[in-house]
């Protein structure tokens, strides 16, 4: 019985490496909409976002389906956005971000690891308790 418990606990350890935590926050973000000359969104194209006067981008990625670049400016107000596509379209835009509200506290962090471990152990103990009750019932009948 102890061997099975040890095996189950050891099998559960690698599962922690596959966790993805998330936090949902309500923040004031700056959204830059990009579009081609014909009005179609500049969708899924590469961009780099730099604070003014810096050579290393703070954010690198792709625009979304509506051609938006979304970021939280923090203390910096002056920005430079370089967007470019493989077919040669692109822009090099310098702008001032409007003042945005400071980030609020996180809305959802999910359960912490200790509570999940305790919950898992309680499920295992409850399962073993039910097995023991069933074994005792069979012996008495």
UniProtKB/TrEMBL annotation:
Signal peptide: 1-17
Entry's transmembrane regions: 114-133
Entry keywords, A to Z: Membrane, Signal, Transmembrane, Transmembrane helix
Protein name: ABC type permease
Organism whose genome encodes this protein: Sulfuricella denitrificans (strain DSM 22764 / NBRC 105220 / skB26)
């Amino acid at each position: 019985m102890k061997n099975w418990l040890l095996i189950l606990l050891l099998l559960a350890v690698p599962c922690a490496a596959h966790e993805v935590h998330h936090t949902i926050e309500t923040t004031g973000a700056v959204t830059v909409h990009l579009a081609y000359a014909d009005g179609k969104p500049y969708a899924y194209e590469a961009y780099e976002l730099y604070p003014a006067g810096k050579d290393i981008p703070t954010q690198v990625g792709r625009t979304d389906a509506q051609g938006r670049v979304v970021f939280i400016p923090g203390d910096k107000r002056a920005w430079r956005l370089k967007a470019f596509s493989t077919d040669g379209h692109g822009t090099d835009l310098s702008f001032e971000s409007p003042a945005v509200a400071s980030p609020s506290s996180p809305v959802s962090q999910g359960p912490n690891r200790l509570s999940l471990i305790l919950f898992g152990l309680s499920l295992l103990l409850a399962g073993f308790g039910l097995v023991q009750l069933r074994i005792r019932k069979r012996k008495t009948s």
